[in-house]
Automatic annotation (TrEMBL):
It is found in: Basolateral cell membrane. Keywords: Cell membrane, Membrane, Symport, Transmembrane, Transmembrane helix, Transport. The gene is LOC101881756. It comes from Melopsittacus undulatus. Residues 212-240, 457-508 are annotated as: Disordered. It catalyses: 4-methyl-2-oxopentanoate(out) + H(+)(out) = 4-methyl-2-oxopentanoate(in) + H(+)(in); 3-methyl-2-oxobutanoate(out) + H(+)(out) = 3-methyl-2-oxobutanoate(in) + H(+)(in). Gene3D superfamilies: MFS general substrate transporter like domains (1.20.1250.20). This is Uncharacterized protein. The keyword Cell membrane applies. It holds the Pfam family MFS_1. PROSITE patterns: MFS (PS50850). Belongs to the major facilitator superfamily. Monocarboxylate porter (TC 2.A.1.13) family. NCBIfam families: 2A0113.
Amino acid sequence: MPPPANTRRAPSPPDGGWGWVVVFGAFVSIGFAYAFPKGVAIFFKEIQDFFGTSYSEVAWISSIILATTYGAGPISSILVNRYGSRPVVMLGGLLCGIGMVSAAFCTSIMQLYICVGFITGLGLALNLQPSVIMIGKYFLKRRPVANGLAMAGSPVMLCTLAPLNQFLFDSFGWRGSFLVLGAILLNCCVAGALFRPIGPGTASVKTQVTEEGKGALKREDTEDAMEMSSPTNLPVKNKTEEERDRDCCEKINQYLDFSLFKHRGFLIYLIGNVLMFLGFFAPIIFLAPYAKHIGFDEYSAAFLLSILAIVDIVARPTTGIIANSKWVRPRIQYFFSFSIAFNGTCHLLCPLASSYTGLVIYSVFFGLAFGMVCAMLFETLMDLVGAARFTSAVGLVTIAECCTILLGPPIGGKLIDTFGDYKYMFIKCGVVMVLAGTFLFIMNYYNYRMLAKEEKERKAKEEDPKTVRTENECRNNWIKETTQDGPELEPLREEQGPKKEVNAVKSH
């Protein structure tokens, strides 16, 4: 039998061992979650010709996938807390496979919205967040390394899916390609099967603590009932109902802490990111169709996404190292603002690239800027709100970002339909992102100034206790003078006597 001390203490993260297998599973599931909505854009030109739809109507497919993946984050978190990461990821992989296989038999663009957009998007959402949570359970000291390796799945998968999708289309058409992709996405079930729980010790400890807590509550309720000498159990039931209501409120606040809307830094981050996502995903979705539009072959167009992904693989860890340096870390919000503005500048210059060499150069700089933004997207949020409120902040941010994620690509497609040229879509995205970066830079400067001022005032009060004592003395003197001169406060002094008498009567 294990000693009692081991049953009372949960095992610490192993920081290795099976954890590296978990990282591989997260690499696969996170890679599909981030890369698939971008890689499926390879088929947009052919789907548009097949159904006779416009660019904006086809762009809704990726928009719905991305919006569902982001918006279903809180649902994924609730399911993970209820059932664990392994079954949730396996369910997500199954939904992805069902969605893509069903899409192969669709006869209208609306059916593609449902199958590819909602069903596959929900499956990708169930893959994303449980993978990040599982890494946090297996790693503590090496968690940044583990997260970096897992997040590298996004550019690696994009680099692989872009030419693979083009090969599948040439071999089987878009319907056959969706069948094969549905089978490939079922590998998310295999990745989820690798998410072995950390051990029975954790569950036993939680069960034991819960049982001890319930036992303590029962003992307290019994003692209260005995002290009150009540013939009924109504007080105990009322207390239990209050505790249940309080538990429900605590569970809601765990995911949606609405007090964050009073946090100045969080509001700045939220407004800037909501504006940024209006032009963040559209360029990467329309990059391959744009290359086909100006006359390049399908494989050359798909290779542009591969170039972007390769640069992204290098840009993310490099940005993390730079952001973690002692020069950048204290002012990481400025670096994040610069990355967004740099991303927008690349889109503004894209219409000047009329040759394939120009598009390759644009893809390199776009991959660099895209990787910089993605590498700091969540780190800057944690820097603002802290680790304790990070989970709630992510839930609120992803829900708010759904609207602009959903509208960004269709607005870009509408511009293409209206003007018959892709350059207006790139200009729109560039202007929006430059404005978002400028807004974040100015408002973060204001936030840093206000934080420094508040910190200075707090330290001044702590270092000068005489000021606090003088303020208290002035307040006490004012109360005494008002009590002596003001007749309105006389009844307040007289109430103290009757209160004591009433208490004495109650005690008898």
